[in-house]
Amino acid sequence: MRDGATAGKPLVAARSIGSPGQGFLGRTATEEDPALPSSDEHKGTLRARNVGESTVIGLAERGVRSSVVRIANIAHDTTDRAGFLPALIALAKEKGFIGYPADGANRWNAVHARDLASLFRLALEKGPAGRYWHAIDDGGIPFREIAEAIGSRLGLPAVSVPVDELVLPGYFGFLANIVTQSYPASNLITRRTLGWEPVQPRLLDDLDNGHYFPAADAEGR
Length: 221
What we know:
Mean pLDDT: 86
Number of domains: 1
CATH architecture: 3-Layer(aba) Sandwich
């Protein structure tokens, strides 16, 4: 049933594309993937984030122009002080090397925060109802390349961390449950439908810009 007070009004919700329960199942995630149930040990239930996502999409049946922006695992920019990258950098400084899991071939996705903001604006302005959007620029960067880029800026070696050392209290600590995962994702439908084109530096270029490493840059002068 349509609600006259909300019909046609936009609602855009945010969630992480790599949150538990999304379930890429070994393939590249697309905007056509619905919110998925959690793993078998929680069969019959949905994780809280997926419940929220499904609820937002369901509002389209009531005339709300609702959609969900799935945000890349790494959102980076010059103001990032408490995200995933600062955590990796701090860990590398503490340990004296930057680690990557096993062969580091697992793929991560990323987006610049300013490109993310432009996607939210487009979704609000002209996004069709009941759709998912992928705020993804880099769709699948090998974790090893991220580690090597950080190591290069810090002057530290990038080192493989064996699988049996990934669990607590191993190198990655509280990050151990996510760093081994692979999160390849596509933004093709988002770009074609909304005309979204990321224009900011991509992840490895942004790391090379140096703003994540002010102390290291100062030491080098």
